[in-house]
Amino acid sequence: MNTEIALLAWTAAVLGVTHTLLGPDHYIPFVAMARAWKWSAARTAFWTFVCGLGHVLSSVLLGLAGLALGSAVGKLEWIESLRGETAGWLLFAFGLAYGAWGLKRALRGEAHTHAHAHEDGTVHLHGHGHEAAHVHAHADPASPDMTPWILFTVFVFGPCEPLIPLLIYPAAKHSFLGAAVVAAVFSAATILTMLATVLALRLGVERIPFGRLERWSHALAGLALALCGGAITFLGL
Q1: Is 202 a residue whose pLDDT tops 80?
Q2: Three-state secondary structure string covering the chain
Q3: Residue 211: predicted pLDDT
Q4: Residues pairing with 48 in the sheet
Q5: pLDDT for the residue numbered 18
Q6: Neighbours of 233 (CB within 10 A)
Q7: Is residue 15 one of the residues assigned to a domain?
Q8: Per the structure, how many domains does the chain have?
Q9: In a domain? residue 118
């Protein structure tokens, strides 16, 4: 590996780490889902890895395909920008829908009272909730089996903006091996940073006593996702 490619590989590693840390959408959704659905560390790591892989591979394949076809840098960056907007809207919409479902679930489970009158004229109040009324699984759009795949779809659309310019230089030197090395280093740095950040935050959140807020965990998770999507869509983060 020549000096130029080695320098680009180091740059790719640094950009992969900073790109991930500066984008809360790379880790907040997984921490929120893990807390709401009580995912184990292994399950959290698995879905973080799968979504991270989809996230980087989509940009790598787009970049390498564009370079092979001779597409201009501007065209590739325009496509990445469009993908970023799409991913932001998808995450924002999913967060709102999931939060609304979580809010409905929490309100349905809230204990309330009913007055009961007896034949002798006495009246007493009886309190109960509905959360335990349906303990079997339902095929709702926010079921535990669906949410990771929805996140995966969002992350496949999500671009890795720093990657395309990094690929251009070695490709311009007719070194596709160099471009592959840069892409691999950037991908590994991104995914490993996602895993480390998600698992560290999950461990911290697990230690926070939610108490009465526990039943609102899905609504709060939806709010977190919507805020991440909104930050991308409306603030360009």
Answers
A1: yes
A2: CCHHHHHHHHHHHHHHHHHHHCCHHHCHHHHHHHHHHCCCHHHHHHHHHHHHHHHHHHHHHHHHHHHHCCCCHHHHHHHHHHHHHHHHHHHHHHHHHHHHHHHHHHHHCCCEEEEEECCCCCEEEEEECCHHHCCCCCCCCCCCCCHHHHHHHHHHHCCCCCHHHHHHHHHHCCCHHHHHHHHHHHHHHHHHHHHHHHHHHHHHHHCCCCHHHHHHHHHHHHHHHHHHHHHHHHHCC
A3: 78
A4: none
A5: 93
A6: 20
A7: yes
A8: 1
A9: no
**What domain range includes position 212?**
3-108+140-235
Mean pLDDT for the stretch of residues 121-127: 49
One-letter amino acid identity for 4? E
Please, is 74 exposed, middle or buried when counting C-beta atoms within 10 Å of its C-beta (0-12, 13-18, 19+)?
exposed
| pTM (two decimals) | 0.79
Cβ contact 181:64 at 8 Å? no
The verdict on residue 128 lying in a domain is no
Domain presence at residue 9: yes
Dist. CA 140–CA 69, nearest whole Å? 43
Contact 18, 160 (CB under 8 A): no
**Is residue 18 a contact partner of residue 221, using CB atoms and an 8 Å limit?**
no
Which residue has 């230089």 as its token pair? 169
Mean pLDDT of 95-113: 80
> Which residue in the block uniquely carries the two structure tokens 């909104």?
230
pLDDT, one tens digit per residue, over 158-184 is 888 777 777 766 665 667 778 888 889
Q: Which residues make beta-bridge pairs with 112?
A: 128
* Residue showing tokens 């311009």: 172
- Sign, CA torsion 127/107/26/208: negative
